Amino acid sequence: xxxxxxxxxxxxxxxxxxxxxxxxxxxxxxxxxxxxxxxxxxxxxxxxxxxxxxxxxxxxxxxxxxxxxxxxxxxxxxxxxxxxxxxxxxxxxxxxxxxxxxxxxxxxxxxxxxxxxxxxxxxxxxxxxxxxxxxxxxxxxx
Length: 142
Description:
By secondary structure, the chain is an alpha/beta fold. It has helices spanning about 20-35, 55-65, 80-95, 115-135; strands spanning about 10-15, 40-45, 70-75, 100-105. The protein has two domains: about 5-110, Rossmann fold; about 110-140.
């Protein structure tokens, strides 16, 4: 866990996990940004496979650090098997291990307006980059 469970609240961001360290570092970067936006919460990361810590370990660490309320945030775009079954099952198992801790699972990211805005930004950025490459190429338009 990144820091002690300030105010006894914690958020665990959980993704699939990857063999690629750069992919796992992105979740850590999101956690760091989240920590700046939620200063009263301890923020942790977890992965379902291929990387550590595993979700049960992260939940146990939050409880050991004093968290009495933990929100598990599935860092998935769609409510597929991991977000709909695996994460809730692991949260239920953690509740059984930590009966004094309230553990809730948030909805996956889904079609949130913030994601739509991010997609628009990426699409526009790709279009600008394409135009810039075309105009920089020999014989390109100005």
